[in-house]
Amino acid sequence: MSSESKTKTFLEFQFAMLLISGNILFAKLIDESVWMITFGRTVFASVGLYLFLKWRDKPVFFTTKTDNIASLGAGVLLAVHWITFFASARLASPAVAVLTLFTHPVITVFLEPIHFASRPKKTDLFLALLVLLGVGILIPELKPGNDLFLGILSGLFSAFTFSYRNLVAKKFLSHHGSAQVMFLQSLTAAILLAPVCYWDPIPTNYRSLGLMILLGTFFTAFAHTLYMKSMFQLKLKTAGILSSIQPVYSILLAWILLGDIPGYREIIGGVLILFAGTLETIRYKKEVP
């Protein structure tokens, strides 16, 4: 990959991270259950991506059974990831949800060698542990059994499913268009979550519906498609460590839009995460094409 292509991929990836960082704000902005928010975003993401693929005259389904099964599995993982992510935000706080989610660079460093012909280098382990340290500083004191503890467990499980979904998509689906890959994952998640309509009323007020449409189309369909496109061109561990900037983006957005002022923990942890991301960015740009 040329230096120009690397720069373009890096900028696309960072823009996707900035948009995805805004997802957590909807946990506070939308007055609906975690299940309904997740179901709504998958429905509107699926519709948006379907219309985009039809407009571009692109296929919406894969032609091989293996690819469709991989897409089904990735969609299930994506649904679980989104549910546990928003559950973490409700049980603990949006900050804790974002920060525990970003233990996934550490998880990715150890998962990737299992499925790809690569071994983690000492630098990979160092950067992953640096991210973990930054996240650890950001999380306040734990007390097992309370909502904070349950929120952190939910966030960690969200991190695992997110990391494994990326691995499945990278290994089995990276030769397909990112919009098609994201459409099938969103559709699978929407079908899986459809039963929520039986016990949770569908929102009828314009505010909730409008925010769900915005979350599903722009902050999910567009943002995650751009993320998938960039991720397919990067090593998983590189994507994981570079994406560790997302907690910093989320904290800044919450500060600007919701008035949540970061404390000293957020500042110190954010600096460590930024440092790890900067080192990985420099290393990525120096790699031989």
From TrEMBL:
Residues 16-138, 150-276 form the EamA domain. This is DMT family transporter. The chain crosses the membrane at residues 9-27, 33-53, 65-85, 91-111, 123-142, 148-169, 181-202, 208-227, 239-258, 264-282. Signal peptide: none annotated. It comes from Leptospira ainlahdjerensis. InterPro entries: EamA_dom, EmrE-like. Keywords: Membrane, Transmembrane, Transmembrane helix. Pfam families: EamA.
